[in-house]
Design a protein that fits this description.
single chain; 541 residues
């Protein structure tokens, strides 16, 4: 059965339950709290049942159909009963453990198209205007930069081709990117021929004025002025700032557009889709200027790639307790010093060797990335520069996530050493393990809330809306950070409560092996999720 059905998934299980109940797909709720999971795994709430059935009473034949619900990727139901809260479903949990932790099916179904993605749309150009700054980056600029970097990793994990623009040449910005482990193209410049072609398009543009060389009415660095408001009105475009009017076009603006054009051409030349989707990842302070550039590109290079431009806008970043204006590099160094001090308080004086330097650097990057990415990108973000805001103990921090990842590494290192010393036998093949030993509520919590939905979390975090009317799009890029924080909290609670490597008695091995298999899968989820943040797992902390 598993061979035909493939890997279980939340969405597939919800579809099977909805089909059996004969109601809309959104009728069922997946439970996640430990308290509710003691009694049920899915619930069709009482209010929804009243809307679907006379008096809210589910007929016995429908309950029987739900109990036998099945389908590709659907987890099997153990029992279904109507309660005061609604129609409660509990799954066959040992079978679910076996499906998710046992050997993979011999064949896997083809992945479904990502919701919100048009057929054939396989490439995205992510443009981050903050990296065009000739001056040093400030902490507020890091938010769109880290968001674009994270989104690029999420899209690539879904098989989407990604091109990052602009190429960075400013040395201070390159150093900040290196410190934060942001993989971004460097050097390079727009082709002079591409800039010349845009100038020629300007000379023929009906919305441009004073394009003659050396026109007396324009400042020296301005090539032309373009009437954006006229273009908006004639094209009937919606979603643009009503204050957009006349744009003074400079050589720098044309070079920026030429670089975007080259990225789109590279997408199509590499066969990554008949059309590239262009997403501008901007701070709210840059949004007006990027709308100007959006319109200028539409005017000079009409086509599907310019007509489908989208703007992913980050909310403001408020810095509290600054004794002076702080740059991105100073922000990194401040957090690094605070992380070192917090680690000394936790572990005592640290060795000044290469290994601990790498640990502190990784913890610092994790702290900054979680600080800037775990809030929805539309919302205001507050950065507290006080040392008390950085801790190795707080459960909401990147350091806490890395700490728990390191605990897993230590567990498996300890087990491996014990195997080499003959204390424990090696972990048997997954097909031979007895997953009915996994009865502790924390074990089902880890499987049902994290291992099961993880692929869908990655998929949903990478979703970009299909082109539609309007400019702004919303991405759920905070989802991975929130997922990792919650996983760390539940893993830590379980790990503190349950002794994994017990006494080396053969009658205890079945449970130990099943738990090691579960935690090995949890470790893999940590590693894959951290990879989307360019964070390597730590083997010590």
């Amino acid at each position: 059965m598993e061979t035909a059905e493939g890997r279980p998934a939340v969405a597939a299980t919800l579809r099977a339950l909805s089909a059996a109940l004969g109601g809309p797909a959104g009728l069922w709720v997946k439970e996640s709290s430990a308290r509710n999971l003691r009694h049920r795994d899915f619930l069709a709430p009482r209010a929804a049942l009243r809307a679907a059935f006379s008096g809210g009473q589910v007929p016995p034949d429908v309950i029987a159909a739900v109990t036998s619900a099945s389908g590709p990727g659907a987890l099997r139901v153990r029992g279904c009963q109507q309660t005061g809260a609604g129609l409660a479903v509990q799954l066959r949990r040992p079978e679910a453990f076996r499906q998710l932790l046992g050997p993979p099916p011999a064949t896997q179904p083809l992945p479904a198209a990502r919701p919100g993605q048009e057929p054939g749309q396989e490439a995205v150009v992510l443009h981050c205007p903050a990296l065009r700054r000739p001056a040093a980056l400030a902490p507020r600029h890091l938010r769109p930069v880290l968001l674009a970097d994270h989104l690029a990793q999420l899209l690539r994990a879904q098989g989407v081709g990604v091109h990052l623009v602009p190429a960075v040449s400013e040395q201070g910005s390159l150093e900040v990117l290196r410190q934060l482990r942001v993989e971004w193209p460097c050097g390079g410049a727009a082709s002079p021929d591409a800039v010349s072609a845009l100038k020629q398009a300007l000379s023929r543009c009906p919305y441009a004025a004073a394009c003659e060389p050396g026109a007396a009415s324009l400042p020296e660095d301005v090539v032309c002025k373009v009437h954006l408001k006229s273009f908006i009105q004639q094209q009937g475009l919606a979603g643009y700032d009503p204050n957009l009017d006349v744009l003074l076009v400079t050589e720098g603006k044309l070079r920026s557009l030429a670089e975007l054009q080259q990225a789109v051409l590279q997408c199509t030349a590499e066969g990554q889709g008949s059309r590239c989707s262009v997403v501008h990842v901007v701070s709210c302070e840059e949004e007006f200027q990027q709308q100007q550039m959006d319109l200028l590109w539409r005017i000079l290079d009409p086509g599907a790639h310019t007509a489908s431009q989208k703007h992913l806008v980050c909310g403001p970043v408020k810095v509290t307790n600054p004794s002076f204006p702080i740059g991105a590099d100073q922000y990194f160094q401040l957090r690094k010093r605070q992380m070192y001090d917090a680690s000394v308080m936790k572990y005592g004086e640290l060795a000044h060797d290469e290994a601990w330097t790498e640990v502190i650097d990784t913890l610092t990057v994790a702290a900054i990335r979680f600080e800037l990415l775990s809030t929805a990108h539309r919302s205001q973000l507050t950065l507290d520069l006080e040392a008390s805001s950085i801790s190795t103990k707080g459960t909401k921090s990147g350091a806490f996530v890395m700490y728990n990842c390191a605990r897993l590494a230590t567990l498996f290192d300890t087990y491996q050493r014990a195997v080499e010393q003959g204390t424990y036998p090696p972990l048997p093949p997954a097909s031979t393990l007895n997953f009915s030993c996994l009865r502790e509520e924390g074990e089902w919590l880890l499987l049902f809330n994290y291992l099961l939905p993880f692929p869908e979390v990655l998929q949903q975090a990478a979703q970009l809306p299909a082109p539609s009317k309007g400019l702004r799009i919303t991405a759920n890029t905070e989802a991975v950070c929130k997922f990792l924080i919650q996983l760390s909290m539940d893993f830590s609670s379980y790990y503190n409560r349950v002794h994994i490597l017990g006494e080396p008695f053969p009658h205890l091995f079945d449970q130990m092996f099943a738990r090691l298999q579960l935690l090995g899968a949890v470790r893999d989820v940590f590693h894959r999720a951290l990879a989307t943040l360019h964070l390597p797992p730590l083997s010590q902390i």
